């Protein structure tokens, strides 16, 4: 009987030892799922023609091309005049390949297989109301857009920017695809 008791006690202690470990903290996840969200451009892609420029135009590193305005049209946004909407604002999360060492400069490529890709320039996107502040790429921005109605527009601008000297820029197609997510936190 003593042997069985010792084996049972030993088994209990071993089971407790396997499950005992130090806890240094906890991660608490918070969030929500909403039933209504803005629809971007009726579900269609937005094409922004940035233009054709000479490599010589980019005389110094960081030299921009002209800023080209474009609009992200939104419909079906969660807006209620009685204040019952699930959220009253959003942020624009932009995802794209970026120029190494320049996290907010979108890398150009031959996205549509039109020819050889240019090098030495990237694409910047800025809010039209804050044209000196690039929108972050692949990270949540601080800029918040208030939902002002079920239908609304977000006005942005985009442009090429050099990241090498003009003599190192190579000619070619300078396309990019940026995925857009509206984050309602």
Automatic annotation (TrEMBL):
Residues in the signal sequence = 1-22
Instruction: Reply yes or no: does the keyword Signal apply.
Output: yes
Keywords noted in UniProt = Signal
Q: Which domain of life is it from?
A: Bacteria
Q: What are the Fimbrial-type adhesion domain coordinates in residue numbering? A: 27-184
Q: Which residues form a coiled coil?
A: none
- Classification via PANTHER family: FIMBRIAL SUBUNIT (PTHR33420:SF26), FIMBRIAL SUBUNIT ELFA-RELATED (PTHR33420)
The protein's name in its UniProt record: Type 1 fimbrial protein
Report the source organism: Rahnella bonaserana
């Amino acid at each position: 009987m003593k042997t069985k008791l010792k084996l049972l006690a030993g088994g209990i202690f071993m089971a407790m030892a396997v499950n005992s470990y130090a806890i240094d903290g906890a991660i608490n996840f918070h969030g929500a799922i909403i039933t209504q969200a803005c629809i971007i451009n009726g579900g269609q892609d937005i094409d922004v023609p940035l233009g054709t420029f000479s490599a010589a135009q980019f005389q110094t590193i960081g030299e921009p091309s002209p800023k080209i305005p474009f609009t992200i049209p939104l419909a079906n946004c969660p807006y209620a005049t009685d204040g019952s909407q699930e959220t009253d604002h959003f942020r624009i999360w932009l995802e794209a390949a970026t120029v190494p060492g320049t996290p907010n400069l979108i890398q150009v490529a031959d996205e549509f297989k039109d020819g050889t890709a240019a090098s030495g320039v990237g694409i910047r996107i800025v809010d039209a109301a804050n044209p000196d502040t690039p929108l972050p790429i692949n990270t949540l921005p601080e800029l918040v857009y208030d939902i002002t109605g079920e239908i609304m527009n977000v006005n942005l601008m985009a442009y090429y920017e050099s990241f090498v000297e003009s003599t190192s820029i190579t000619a070619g197609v300078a396309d990019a695809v940026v995925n857009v997510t509206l984050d309602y936190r």
